[in-house]
Amino acid sequence: MAINALQSAASGLTALNTALDVTANNLANVNTQGFKASRVNFQDLFYQEKAQPGAVNSNDDQRPTGLYVGLGVKVSGTQIDFTQGAAQSTGRPLDAMIEGAGFFQVTVEDSKASEGRGYTRAGNFALNADGEMVLANDQGRRLEPVITIPPNAIQGSISISSDGRVTYMTPGATEPSEAGQLQVATFVNPAGLRQIGENLYGATVASGPANVGVPAEEDRGTIVQGSLESSNVDPTRELIELIRVQRAFEMNSQSIKAADDTLRTVSQLRR
Question: Are residues 152 and 46 in the same domain?
Fold first, then answer.
């Protein structure tokens, strides 16, 4: 009956609405530093088996095909694309970009992420009132391990090496002083990270534990000072996806209309 068509088309509208939400979020974050685009994965639902392939009739002939009617579609999950974003040169000494694999670590509430650790690709850092390096966002998340720049450091003398060593100069000094060591975390399955907002991710069982260490070691990326990683959202591709979703939504709407017309015709039959 057309009831199945209504249900299948309705499930398509629901799934496509989720795809539209994800695409809109990608486009909204086209200028967000370190943002990684997501894509929606779909899967079909159960099937009504009305005839089984290989069934044998009275003449021992086998049915070559089955008869299955699908019951629609659902969103199976969203998948994060961790391809490298383009480098955006800023010239600011506290801006840092990871070229390659890895995430910066910041301190968050235990309720937000396990072990109070958040992970981000955004490297737009600033100093708080205590001279600690923090994310330059509305929460000022503290970099982990903590790196502190003393108040007597010469402005503009902060240097971040490719392996993450943070140094600065003080008045009268002939050699730079070391403030700390940036560390980078990698994951066996970064696509399994939990998106917790603020450009942050949280570790999960699916992602595996964080493998934390010095940049440029064990396949970790290197640090590029004075640059930020741009969002890896491709506006052209997202706009094409937006059009595809819109057209698919319209087609599923037509399926609902056709099923409704069929049911109306059936209800008006006279003996």
Answer: no
